[in-house]
Amino acid sequence: MSTRTASEERAVVIGLEVHVQLETDTKVFCGCSTEPADDEEPNTRTCPTCLGLPGALPVLNEAAVEAAVKIGKALDADIPETTTFHRKNYYYPDLPKNFQLTQYDAPICADGELEVSVDGERRTIGITRAHLEEDPGSIQHAGGSIESATHTLVNYNRAGTPLMEVVTEPDFRSPAETRAFLAKLEEVLEYLGVFDATRDGSLRVDANVSLVDADEVTEDGSVPEAVLADANRAEVKNISSHKGAEKALAYEITRQRNVLRRGREIEQETRHWDEGRGVTVSMRSKEAEKDYRYFREADLPALEVSDWKDRIPIPELPDARRERFRTEYGLDDEAASKLTSTKEVADFFEDVAGEYDPELAATWVADNLLGELNYREMEITDVTDRLDEFTRLVELVDAGELTVKNAEEVVLREMLDEGEDPESVIEREGLGKAESDEVETAVEAAIEENPDAVADYHDGDEGAINFLVGQVMQATGGSADPGQVNGLLRERLDG
Ligand SMILES: Nc1ncnc2c1ncn2[C@@H]1O[C@H](COP(=O)(O)OP(=O)(O)OP(=O)(O)O)[C@@H](O)[C@H]1O
Ligand SMILES: [Mg+2]
Ligand SMILES: [Mg+2]
């Protein structure tokens, strides 16, 4: 009989294995393209090497190794003197060679970390290792799910796409933390330019989860090795999004709690996340390492990578950049976050800020431009070659040649919708200097026609100015800038 009682408190332990596709032009061990063509036929983007035909030899793709080194640097990991490749042997139809070329005891990255913040609390997640490997082909279960399909189709176009498998320490204590980690990892990978989150299946997660006695968790939140090794864990496969990880783990934790509550033991097993039904389903008992008969790939010599770390630069990473935006440009947290949401947005902002006043640049990029782009489902990269036009728009506003309202509501929108430059929109819509004259005329008229309000203002009635601003706004059809009108009125009335 188990010595544990059903009511005993349990702590959640989660570790992730994250597979990310690296963005390279060609596959990791052959020259086939990694880019799916529109409407491509299955099994056309292949060659003898990625099909595993007898006698075909692998050639390592330098770009994939460079991407891996960049990831290692970003995760503050150790990069060894030499790295080697191994065959991981197993039989599955998505693997034409019956082994996967991967790394074993000398992975390209080891012992790193990534800091995440969950509900304002900072947590450092240990990275055990990260290694390069090839993606298997893709499998389609025809006529339904993995359980109900009548037959299965295999497509090797994906086979050989470079993957980086990032293995974390079992440092997560909640599903929400894994979601934050995956978002952060993706952000870093995109900054490095080695990953495309929009590509289907570019991120796949295996989530390992166990429940341990809460008493075993030490004060610093860690769990002793022996306890971890002793705990039976389920490895949940087929997770393809941050949200999916959070949902699958929440389900799996409840399932394990219920198993224990019924007085049974947790099995050490591999489970499948059924996204549609929102449940995890048992697939098989967990394979042990010896099942894979790992051995060195004799066709790939050991690779010396000791000097690659110094040779390959990486850009400033999101956290550091956010911090610098706060100190260098005096941005608040919200603006700094928005303006570093992608490397491209951050670059755009800094280009405008370099040409111009950073505070104005921040308001215009963070509030106006990103908002209008988002509304149109456009990306910053759609307008990066129009940086000059955008900077001129901001300058025109600052110089008083254009009201903020017109710039935001007319000129910027026309620039995006019609691809016009700011000057031609201003000219066509008659928004330039002529309009300033119109405002001045309306200000004069408002003062002339409302002597009572003017008298009230001089008697100290602040409300009277609002009335006069309202008159001018009405006269100009709402196109004037209320702040500017207010200023002009006071100038006249006080002067
Ligand atoms: N007690 C535990 N509870 C939850 N997760 C754990 C526990 N112990 C280890 N893990 C996690 O399990 C994962 C182990 O991954 P690793 O790739 O090393 O082995 P594997 O899953 O046995 O191998 P593979 O799936 O590649 O064949 C790591 O993410 C680790 O943090
Ligand atoms: Mg695993
Ligand atoms: Mg693994």
Automatic annotation (TrEMBL):
It catalyses: L-glutamyl-tRNA(Gln) + L-glutamine + ATP + H2O = L-glutaminyl-tRNA(Gln) + L-glutamate + ADP + phosphate + H(+); L-aspartyl-tRNA(Asn) + L-glutamine + ATP + H2O = L-asparaginyl-tRNA(Asn) + L-glutamate + ADP + phosphate + 2 H(+). It comes from the Archaea. It is an enzyme of class 6 (ligase). Allows the formation of correctly charged Asn-tRNA(Asn) or Gln-tRNA(Gln) through the transamidation of misacylated Asp-tRNA(Asn) or Glu-tRNA(Gln) in organisms which lack either or both of asparaginyl-tRNA or glutaminyl-tRNA synthetases. The reaction takes place in the presence of glutamine and ATP through an activated phospho-Asp-tRNA(Asn) or phospho-Glu-tRNA(Gln). The gene is gatB. InterPro entries: Asn/Gln-tRNA_amidoTrfase_suB/E, Asn/Gln-tRNA_Trfase_suB/E_cat, Asn/Gln_amidotransferase, Asn/Gln_tRNA_amidoTrase-B-like, GatB, GatB_C_1, GatB_Yqey_C_2, Gln-tRNA_amidoTrfase_suB_CS. Residues 347-493 form the Asn/Gln amidotransferase domain. One of its GO terms (molecular function) is glutaminyl-tRNA synthase (glutamine-hydrolyzing) activity. Heterotrimer of A, B and C subunits. Signal peptide: none annotated. PROSITE patterns: GATB. Belongs to the GatB/GatE family. GatB subfamily. This is Aspartyl/glutamyl-tRNA(Asn/Gln) amidotransferase subunit B. Keywords: ATP-binding, Ligase, Nucleotide-binding, Protein biosynthesis, Transferase.
